[in-house]
Amino acid sequence: MLSIAESRSADQILEQVVQGIAEASDLALARLWLLQLDSECPLCSEGSKHTGDERALHLRASAGQSQRPGVRYADIGGHSHRIVVGERKIGCIAASGTPLLIPKVTGTEAWVADPEWIRTERIRSFAGQPLIFRGETLGVLAVFSRTDSSEEEFRWLRTFADHAAIAMANAKAYEQLDRLRAQLQAENEYLHEEIDAMQFGQIVGHSPALRTVLEQVALVAQTAATVLITGESGTGKELVARAIHDQGPRRLRPFVKVNCGAIPEALFESEFFGHVKGAFTGAVKDRMGRFELAHTGSIFLDEVGEIPLSMQPKLLRVLQEKQFERVGDERTGTVDVRVMAATNRDLQRDVKQGRFREDLFYRLSVFPVELPPLRQRKEDIPDLALSFLRKSASTLGVPAPRLTQANARQLQSYDWPGNIRELENVIERATILFQKSGRLSFDLKLPNPGNSAGKNRAVGATDRADDAPVLTRDLLRQREIQNIQAALKRANGKVFGPGGAAELLGMPSTTLASRIKALGLRRTFIAPSNSNNP
Predict the structure, then answer these.
(1) Model pTM?
(2) What is the mean pLDDT of residues 80-107?
(3) Do residues 45 and 17 lie in contact, with contact meaning Cβ atoms separated by under 8 Å?
(4) CATH of domain 379-463
(5) Residue 271: exposed, middle, or buried by beta-carbon count in 10 A (0-12, 13-18, 19+)?
(6) How far is Cα 428 from Cα 277, in angstroms, rounded to an integer?
(7) Buried b / exposed e across 49-60, counting CB within 10 Å, b at 16+?
(8) Phi, psi angles (nearest 5°) of residue 486
């Protein structure tokens, strides 16, 4: 009894119950049926004709000592595996919740399904006890004995059934806790994964283009509509999806991200919908898919255009019918998930070229949101740069460098083909270099694919090197003089400190002072403030 009470596995409890009873002398057979849905029974869910959701008694454990050589009673299949509630003696015990004792069995009774078995095994009595816990019938425990059963033995079987029912209830509770713990652990792992993957921290900016997007986010967040977020790589599509989730009624539920571009084609179905143990090589245990993890919450399908054609009908089914099957499982599950998808591809072109299903495209794009590239919202660059400076400095554990107006203008003069992601990388690199140089500078040069020596072209250079003007040394010197003069004029002759020409030019003030002296600009451009010369 103690070993049964301490067991946390339902299958282990069932085996211990029947094995323990079968050790009694003159006992022929002990069996235990559980009252459950057909889909919950391991045998019925593996291809039997009973695959619906009807509740019936299912034989889950059997043990005994046969009079016939070579006969073992561990088999739980056969005609007695599934018994309808209310039918036969086992079904009547489950239906009424009332124990049944037949102290003398002759084999001629109407309920006896196999009189020959009764005769061969010399069965003399039958006893059946319902497994009841808190008023709920969990199953039926029955024994066939070769002796006349007494009331004392019947009461002993009742005690055994009560202990078994409590242990079964505890095992079910533990299994439920284990499932919830596994789900919480999986959700927690995904949460950490998503937190680590966050790239932009928060939506920053005030440009008209961004305000339009935020108005759309606020509008669609309160609905259950499927959202398709489009835009170039690095524009913040995941951040917008998070904002929609966080502002909606599902904000306290999971937000699960799936990077469709990082999943091997053979693993898409398992990643989306999960698998059961043994479904394929390497499936050593049951695993929930991302859709199950996102149940009652939101799922974000990043790079949705990378989903293979063979997988698209199953995704469409989840969107339309909210139904799916785990890999290797014939049971159909349902899920309540808000779907958001993102892509930097032209899905309409993919539809025309046969690479993406038209019906799936229209199902995904119920509410399209297009994100503008950073070059179309340059007003936001100073705010974004300042935010990234603070973030990078915090990560490095150093004071944040000061972003000057010259720095901001330099960043705004660049077209940012990598968008916000590229800006963050540039800022992070500049913050690291600032620790050594003490000067905040940005490397805004792109590799020139036409130059095998690996030289770079600066921002604003033309795409073809042979189109660029060639300047003589005198012209370069004159350009430098004009540039410094313009900075000095704007700074009212101030070289050092905030608002000085050095800050406007984005160079150390000592370097600028040296260039002014070398070019002779102090004598020709800046008059001493106390001069009385006409």
Answers:
(1) 0.52
(2) 89
(3) no
(4) 1.10.8.60
(5) buried
(6) 44
(7) ebbeeeebbbbb
(8) -65, -40
